[in-house]
Amino acid sequence: QVQLVESGGGLVQPGGSLRISCAASGSISRINVMGWYRQAPGTQRELVAVISRGGSINYADSVKGRFTISKDDAKNTVHLQMGSLKPEDTAVYYCAAVWSIGVPRYSHQYDYWGQGTQVTVSS
Question: Do 50 and 36 contact (CB within 8 A), yes or no?
């Protein structure tokens, strides 16, 4: 099994920045893609950004140019640096992981999930 633990969520003002992180543990050999999805109340879980061990990345169009995903292979950790935050970025952010040839975009393609961390953008 693979365990994913998120950290770093919180409250931030519009236009501000925040970094969230996800650490993987357990059977790390079962995953080679990690990333982030988010879900706001009453909506479906949606892609934010995912990254493969080889460095391939998929971003949602809504976050391109504002968010940056990165990874630390030595620590089995991925980070999401979020900038120019908007109220519509408010959601629970979930870490996800899977073993895949490509870099999947859809949530049903991911096998492992964290518990989520709340990000609230509000003045």
Answer: yes
